[in-house]
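Marked as duplicate of an earlier ticket. Keeping the data here for the record.
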Amino acid sequence: MNTIDYAPLADYSLGTLGTARRDYWLCQLAGWGSFAVVGLLSSAQGDTESALRFAAAKTACMVSGLLLSHLWHQFLRGRGWLDRNRAFPFKGILAGLALLGVVQVGCLILADLVFRKGALLADRPALPTVTLMLFFLWFGVFLVWTLSYAVVLSRRRALRFELEKLELEVSAKDAELRALQAQINPHFFFNSLNSIRALIYQDADAAARAVGQLAGMMRHTLQAGQANTVHLADELAAVDAYLGMEKLRFDERLQLTVQVEAGLEQVAMPPMILQTLVENAVKHGVELSIGACQITIAARRAGSAVLVSVANQGSLAGASASTRLGLANAGKRLALLFGPESTCTLAEQDGWVVASIVLPQAAP
């Protein structure tokens, strides 16, 4: 059944948190792992013992970089420095990056002392220059990390914004659908009461039967109001009750033919939409006719869609004063539920007024 479904949106909204954490750690491990591989390849020089010591020192340095970047990530989230609702704190970010660079250089020197016995500190005259170069190197590394994180965060926000926008659009469409359906129900009830009022002065027993039929139809209306779609078979049952009541009023003037292609009973459609088309056929066909007026309800496959039509003998000229609110609302409800593939049209063909709705074949 092709209806608005909230479950996928909710599942996606809940699933993005776990996906974000997973992607974060994958990127962290991939980035620092690649950095470590490059460092290990560059350390494969000299004798085996020196190469191993150099590799161990660089591995320790990459691990400390991973830990520091994760702590920085937690700090940024806690302070909300990359939130879109506040100004970007350049000074705070630069101070944090400088601190990260200093701490990372300290970790590098410590690793050099542990694994290489202070080889980096051996050349004391060059030590200040080397330390300064290492500081700017790691400052740049953490700067690139921060910019990358900011870009990912921005893209994630954009995705969340689109999701929220979609949820609002779905909610608005559902509210509009309910409002349109609420407009149809009083219209149907008003017409039914008019029919009963006419019967009261003519046949009290028929009026009593009509009240019972009206109660049954209203029960169907209330039940149908809880769902976005109902089956064609249910709509036909409600229409049969309505026309049974109208038959008491118009007697032989109302002639009915139903032609439903086999296998279409479970096709989904908006509640009361077929009722609306039949009401219009009675109002602008049977009521205006002097003699017998034929109403034909048909449902058949039309290519990749299902065509449901209600035709009555007469002409559109007789209905020109009508606002056709029911038909206009029917078209809107179809568009909201099934998209632009579904339509509601009214046309005059060879002495018949035909109201047709097109339903997607995907609807079971």
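See parent ticket for discussion. Helices lie at 7-42, 48-79, 90-116, 127-200, 204-224, 232-250, 273-286, 325-338.
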